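Figure caption, in words: inputs first, then the predicted bound structure.
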Amino acid sequence: MFLNKKGKRTNGPWIVLRGNPETSVTVCWTGSKKKESVLLWGESESSLPNRLVSAKNGLHSVTIDNLSPGTGYFYSIQEDLILFGSNKVFKFRTQPEMESDEITEFIVAGDLQPKNSATLETNRVMAQQIHRENPDFIVQTGDLVQIGSQSKYWNFLLQSLPLMASSRPILPVVGNHEYYLYHSTKNFRTFFPYSFPGRKSVYYSKDIGPVHIIFLDSYDDGFAGMSSNTSSKQMEWLTGDLADAEARGAGWIFVILHQSVISNGEYPGDVKLQKLLLPVLAKFNVDAVFWGHAHLYEHWHYQYGKNGYLLNPRDLPGKSPIDFFCIGSSGASLESNYRLFTHKNFKRNKPEWFSVKEGRHRRKTSVQYPWNRKLFLEGITDRHYYHFPFNESGNYSGDSKISYNTENEWFGYQYGENTLHYAKVVIKNNLCTISIHYPDGSLLKGPGDALSQKFYLRKKRG
Ligand SMILES: [Fe+2]
Ligand SMILES: [Fe+2]
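Bound structure (fe (ii) ion present):
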């Protein structure tokens, strides 16, 4: 399935976390169905005394168990790897023990979707930069490939993914493009062998050090085209998983999904998902939410129900605001290539919100306008179109050429920029820092360097 045309050379490796991240990793690589493949590993680069054999398979994976927490290890695959050649020794590190005082650092990467020479190159550049950041692990917001049913696109992904994921685990969510063309998660499940429920849904969650991360599947309840279709079974699981995480005393809780819950991209926000997710996230004091799908960067700071409106009358308002991020392109063709400036039929959402004061529902029509080409930052090689929705007095602008969505004030929109980017999350005890970076590692700072995209979250719970 994932072999290159010659069918002889192997590609990868990439690491996933099937077991306890303190004591176990799973290494994956492609191979030949006709022969076994061998992985050597050890604690020193010069000596790899342990040998694991993977059976004949188009996709190999071996799990290295009984490791020590917070310890560096080395491994090598006894094959001629397409990206690295023969005898390359890779390094990884297990997660430190939960109680340790060490910093936890992870990268959130956005849509990848290599599909042509330009996006193969942007993916390579981004993967190299994410590797340079040397995070403990990588989270990815879905749409890793252009068409999930075609091996060609998984092989495109393999031209860059191992550059960042051979030295640390990658934890992705499924995107609509992984489901294409036949609404199947088969290849995603094979490529990323996490423990998923059932035969199709690919949601899961992980505790890694002080962090609990939930990975949702936006499309598990039947084909939905460009909008979500989330099963009620998954929502029940989510509520239970969040309750368990809080009961266990998880320090930080993050939710990752592919579908843009709110958006100023080509497609409008997803009202169905807003209705399902916003009340649950608010109830459990989730710290931050990351999604992709729209190929740009956006940030909202929103407290559900604070304005006196709820999606369901029985909901409780959130206790504090949550930061919502669209991390939408760490290699994928930018949103400006998808009608960002030209969608003439302004998108109209008409959700019903329940006014607590009036005790009745109100239909709220929202309108989304195209982006303004005149507002851009001059990048090194291209223009970075930005969206800063405020007027000079610091209020949300009523001018549709400044604020492109009538929902901006409602959802606390802060800033957006049409650029390649990734997020870095650094956790040290009670402080979590989230920062957004360009492909060269520098911080997004907005027009006049006045809008540094760096956010400090203090732990809300004891
Ligand atoms: Fe995408
Ligand atoms: Fe998508």
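The chain has a mean pLDDT of 94.
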